[in-house]
Structure formats: structure tokens, C-alpha cells
Design brief:
This is NlpC/P60 domain-containing protein. By secondary structure, the chain is mostly beta strands. The chain has four helices and 23 strands. It folds into three domains: about 60 residues, SH3 type barrels (Roll); about 55 residues, SH3 type barrels; about 120 residues, endopeptidase fold (from Nostoc punctiforme) (Alpha-Beta Complex), CATH 3.90.1720. The protein is globular, with a radius of gyration of 19 Å. It starts with a strand and ends with a strand.
Length: about 250
């Protein structure tokens, strides 16, 4: 039996233990490697970054190499190739799909699952400006461990933005700080795409003055002047900026 699977629900929670706490998420079509089988649960590793935890077995099917991905901010999957039918599910932006057949304005994913052509693009299509991708999540609710448009945290936002540019990223901000980009000095001019790190937090620069980040203060993805964020985080005992990293894509 293969130990390579993929997610078959819009979002799959990765927990720290069966029925435990949320630590990260995967999107529809995401690949994972199963380490062990525990009744209704499996221990697994997320293929993109090796993040490990526990997921429900019912959320998984055998992995098939993807051909396409969702380009719109969510897309309906229907039981028939007809927009008037009740959708089976709504899959998030960047979900990975495998096209099997073409039916007019629709593609078939597998038996009795269809998606409109307008919502998808080839899996090889990349968006080099990862900040443009990050901005799509503006206003998305904050969710600790979240990795989708339904809820996202600071490191999840960075990972989702880089994912659409074809750049892999660790799931946690501490590892992102260690592994992503090159360190720049605090007195250098900041640029669009620079990552600003605090202990346990990260944001993305929209330009030399403004920060985009998912945070528990606003409880959503928001943009604000970096100086405003720095002062508030310091006042709330979040400390000072620990590093600034620049990613070259």
C-alpha cells in the first residue's frame, strides 16, 4: 500500500495529536507522506516542507500528480458540468487539481467532480511578485496555524505568498527567519517583499514603509505603517525586530 496521499477536502487540519490542537493546514490536492496509521487518524508529513502532525484519514485519497491549480479566490466543484447544480464543495485559492477530461466550459477532475475552466490555470504558472499574492488575503480572518483564505496566521501568509511564486517555505516563522532569504541591515532601505521578523511573528513589506501581516491584534490580515506595528508590538511585550530578510526569486 502506498504511503503517498493527497487531501480531498477544501482544507485539512494538521493537529499536534489525534483530536488535539491545530498546528498547520493543507489545501485540497496537497500531497503528504503517511508515517503511521492510528485508527481514524494518520501521522504524516506535509510534502512541501516536511511539517509533521496528525490528520483524519477520511480527508485523504491516493495521490495523483496535479496538472492545474485554482487561480481564483475560491472555486466551486460541481457534481455535473452545470453552474446551476448545487456545488459539492468550494476549494480555496492555490488548491492543486488533476484534470482528466474536458466538457465544454468545464474540466472533469474525477468521476462526478467538475470545475469551471475560468477558475484554473496550469500547475506550472507562477507569480513572481509574491506580494501581489499576499495582498489577495487582505482581510482574511486570523487563525493560529491557518494556511488558507478561510483563516491564516503570520507564517501561513508568507508560505501561501511564496507558494504561488514556486518558492517553498517552512511552516513556522522561527524556521522562516533561519531559512528564507538573505539578512539585510536595519539601516538599509526596505523594499517590497522584504520579510520583517519579531520573536514569533513575521510580516511582509508592501513598500519601504508599509507592512502586510496576519496578526492577533486586528484578528485578520491587515496593512499598516511598519512604525505603527513596531511601536504596538514593543508596547505589548512582543519585543523589537529580530531580523529583516530579503528573498530573491
Amino acid at each position: 500500500m502506498s504511503n503517498i496521499f493527497q487531501v480531498c477536502k477544501p482544507v485539512c487540519n494538521i493537529l499536534d495529536r489525534p483530536n488535539g490542537n491545530l498546528i498547520r493546514q493543507m489545501l485540497y490536492g496537497d500531497r503528504l507522506d503517511v508515517i503511521s496509521d492510528i485508527g481514524e487518524w494518520v501521522k504524516c508529513k506535509r510534502y512541501s516542507d516536511g511539517y509533521d502532525g496528525y490528520v483524519k484519514k477520511s480527508y485523504l485519497i491516493n495521490w495523483v500528480s496535479p496538472t492545474s491549480k485554482v487561480r481564483s479566490f475560491g472555486a466551486q466543484i460541481y457534481k455535473r458540468p452545470n453552474i446551476k447544480t448545487i456545488p459539492l464543495m468550494n476549494v480555496p485559492f492555490q488548491s492543486e487539481l488533476t484534470i482528466t477530461k474536458e466538457y465544454g466550459d468545464f474540466f472533469e477532475l474525477k468521476k462526478d467532480q467538475f470545475i469551471h475552466k475560468m477558475h484554473i490555470e496550469p500547475i506550472t504558472e507562477l507569480k513572481k511578485d509574491f506580494i501581489e499574492t499576499a495582498e489577495k488575503y487582505l482581510g482574511v480572518p486570523y487563525l493560529w496555524g491557518g494556511d488558507s483564505q478561510y483563516g491564516v496566521d503570520c507564517s501561513g501568509l508568507v508560505s501561501l505568498a511564496l507558494r504561488n511564486a514556486g518558492h517553498s517555505s517552512p511552516g513556522d516563522s522561527s524556521k522562516q527567519e533561519k531559512e528564507l532569504g538573505i539578512t539585510i541591515k536595519n539601516n538599509e532601505y526596505l523594499k517590497r517583499g522584504d520579510l520583517v521578523f519579531w520573536k514569533g511573528h513575521v510580516g511582509l513589506m508592501l513598500d519601504e514603509k508599509n507592512l502586510l501581516h496576519a496578526n492577533g491584534y486586528h484578528m485578520k490580515v491587515t496593512k499598516e505603517p511598519l512604525d505603527t506595528a513596531k511601536e504596538r508590538i514593543k508596547t505589548n511585550n512582543g519585543g523589537l525586530i529580530t531580523s529583516i530578510k530579503r528573498i530573491i526569486i
